[in-house]
Prior knowledge:
Helix content is 35%, strand content 19%. It is an alpha/beta fold. The strands form two sheets. A six-stranded parallel sheet has the order 2-1-3-4-7-8, sandwiched between helices. It has a two-stranded antiparallel sheet with strand order 5-6. The longest helix has 14 residues, at 43-56.
Amino acid sequence: MKIIYLHGFNSSSNSKKAKIFKNSKLVVSSGIKVFFPDLPVSPKEAIKNILSLAKSCDFKVSLIGSSLGGFYSTYIADTYNLKSININPVVPNHLKDMKDLIGNHQNYHSDESYLFSEDMYEYLHKIKIKKLKYPLNHLSLIQLEDEVLNHFKTLSYYKNSNLCVEKDGSHEYKEFEKKIPLILDFLL
């Protein structure tokens, strides 16, 4: 089994959840190969890199994505009939509320400054999947106290998928380590 872990917007492979997953005794002892790519800022380049990695695994891979990484993992998984775990993911109905992301940013982990352009934003609209072809291939972990994304839009989008919904929490996804057994059970 191989897994690709996709971080969110303005983050990196050194995100808190990525580190928790990478260092989990369950993951380490399972012998599962997990890839933690640092995704380019450009969604088009990010998708290109993720697809290249998936192809190198002969598409015998599952995906885990957080926030914007969840948008990417849903796109790849539904396009290629793979399994995905989506942690407080961005969904198509969030995109119109994300237009204010266009502009200059500084990465939380590397301190790299960059521009998220209007073309990059528009590419997200090009790849959005309005209705999932394989809804049961997706397990979405949603905490209702997400302060960044509207969870009602997330729940509506994944309504025919597998859902794990918690009343409390945050966009960061509190106590993520407790979900690792569920994640591995779903993916294996």
